[in-house]
Design goal:
By secondary structure, this protein is an alpha/beta fold. The protein is 19% helix and 26% strand. The protein has one domain: Rossmann fold (3-Layer(aba) Sandwich), CATH 3.40.50. The protein has eight helices and 14 strands. About 28% of the residues have low confidence.
Amino acid sequence: MAYPARFYAAFHRGTPGDLEHYRRICHGAASVLELGCGYGRVVTALAAPGRCVVGVDRDPALLAMAEASVGALPAAHRSGVELRVGDMRHVDLGRRFDRVLLPFGGLYCMLDDADLDATLANVRRHLAPGGRVALDVYRADEFHHESEPEDVPDDAYTPLGRVEVDGVAYEVLERSTWDKPRQRLDVHYLYVEQDGRIVEGTIAQRYLLEDQLRAALARAGLTILRLDRGFAPHEAGELPNDARHDGAERGDGRHDPHRDDPHGNHPHGNHPHRDDPHDRYGDDPHGDDDPHGDDPHGDDPHGDDQHGDDPHCDAPHCDAPHCDDPYDDDDAEALMVVEAIASPGGIASR
């Protein structure tokens, strides 16, 4: 379902801590590819003199917003930025990158295993020797295993606050629908103007359990270096994993105490694409903080539509990137934040 780009960009601003996380990940990288770049929140945050940054999204309207954000950067920063309309599942850029990113839940825009595997295989193809893949998605294991659909009925629309789009104020309401067997958690938004005019948007997503994510990365020929439960702060001056290319996973489980999960721990409350418009979302990949728009995890407006039918996905938007997570400050397992490298043996057989 379509999600008007300007509304998506006004409301979905990323996850607290994500921009700083991806800046650290890309420290020292000469080339960066973001799949599901949406309105450019993350792309613009990573633009730097001498660095090539390519953003892919399948939503032309979101990319037009990203173009405007890039155009506002200093000349030395914007000269290395390239934006492309494409589907993250099979876009072919004809080159490889030091970093390939799928921020803000973009991977959850892939609504079946075929699209998931196609996306991750394409990530692997675009990864330069010695390069790294980085992504974040919300953690779903707890609510999936501990809740049943009959225990968590579909939400009624709930007011989230107000947001301004093109100078007009709208009240934002949200509801979600959960299909447990299919692992679908779709989030529906209403933007209601004072005169009663309504604009609708939906983010469709299929969440993964941790074992499923690990298996999908392995099938694509990717080895996990670390899998954290949040955007873990690093010691001052430390560049995460800069000296740790031994292939050992370092999941220390540290959780970002500042992370605000708009969705709580159950499938209806945790929307992967949501970031309160009144909370600048931190460094949200899509950013409030920055016009970039990662998005989000998505085809989201982000991307190459890697996320299926999410306007934010690469998939349409989804690079999903945009699922704002389902977690809550008290949930120590809010996210799965992954860094991976190419496996020595290549793509695993199925």
